Amino acid sequence: MLYKNLGSTNLKISVIGQGATHVGSYAWYDDDKAKERIRGWRIGIEMGMNFIDPADLYGGGLSEELVCQAIKGIREKVVVATKFNPQGNDTSSAILAAAEGSLRRLDTDHIDLYQIHFPNPLIPIEPVVAALTQLVSDGKVRYVGVSNFSIDDLREMQNFFPPGIVSNQVEYNLIDRSPENETLPYCQQKSISVLAYSPLGQGKLSLDSYALQCLKVLAEKYQKSFFQLALRWLVSKSQVIAITKAANMQHIKENAESTDFVIDPDDLAIIDKFAMPEVVYIPIDRISINSPDGRPTYASIEEALKNAADLIPSPELLAQDLVKRKSAKPIQLISYNDPQGRYLYKLDPYDFLGQLRKYWAWVIAYGREKPIPALAKE
Ligand SMILES: NC(=O)c1ccc[n+]([C@@H]2O[C@H](COP(=O)([O-])OP(=O)(O)OC[C@H]3O[C@@H](n4cnc5c(N)ncnc54)[C@H](OP(=O)(O)O)[C@@H]3O)[C@@H](O)[C@H]2O)c1
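Above: the input record for the complex with NAP. Below: its predicted structure, written as tokens.
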């Protein structure tokens, strides 16, 4: 395993971290699944992946409780990150209470990296900074990071928060390379870690056939899997750490072994050049938002604004962020033919709610006339 410093700190973290989503929830608790995830994280830690990334939102706090069991007796060997939800916790006292909740669920006296899960343009920065400053000075939080922040929001936090922001967690993989536009160059210049989430494209790195062929040839050359090569490519970039989610033991092992080889800079350049998927612009009326499990998905802008299903971040908050940053993360779609033979799209079911939020944020911000930027898979 390779290790990098977290931002400009002396804390060493494995370049492949372990994500803690998809753990179920208190209402849908599955004991066998929970035990298997705990066992998987423990094996991952033993194989050198010392960085683990739950959040108070994942499973409503269940992910932190399960991580607590995985790190029992080996707390000092593990760099524990977690995140707070800035939509539900929008005052200083609420953020302090959220941190206490995470500390309790993780059964630890400190969080190594405490992250703001996403920007909340509806709240002022001062109470957020006040709470984080207090947590650091009380020794309950070692370092502070952000997630899903634009460069402008990150700069603003840097200016207001003297201890400094050490990381920005953003989606980054072979098919979503948008961080390379601004986030990565800025973070590299400022020695801020870029924590790449969904580094395996949620298990579906659908590239065009030429790029796929290139990657397969290189994977064969290094005797590694396609996904191991995708991780190796990502973490070869300065400041980048990949946070994978793997429940399958073989995947955990492969991810832990994805950095145990040296990759030729010429091969990295080939991947850089050819794996550059195209963002397409899809008319809103060609996208079906039917939920794979029959859940309501909002039928109108008014319903999306009301957000009765309590999507977090809310479509309204995401719409504000969209307008503020003037750029959008592409929505992830799957193309299909309907019974009439029309070529249509549906939301990628892996992170269905994430795509649904992007859909409604776009419609709230720009209406139904403007096509939405998308990454479309077959
Ligand atoms: N900050 C944020 O807003 C945010 C948003 C999303 C995610 N995250 C973080 O990022 C982590 C990972 O994200 P993710 O789950 O979206 O994406 P991911 O790690 O790119 O993909 C996970 C999927 O890839 C599969 N997989 C894992 N290792 C593999 C391998 N070696 N070969 C083939 N398939 C493999 C997994 O299957 P199995 O599970 O069956 O092994 C799972 O289906 C999360 O757990 C979370 O900590 C953060």
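Notes for the reader.
The radius of gyration is 20 Å.
The longest strand covers residues 141-147.
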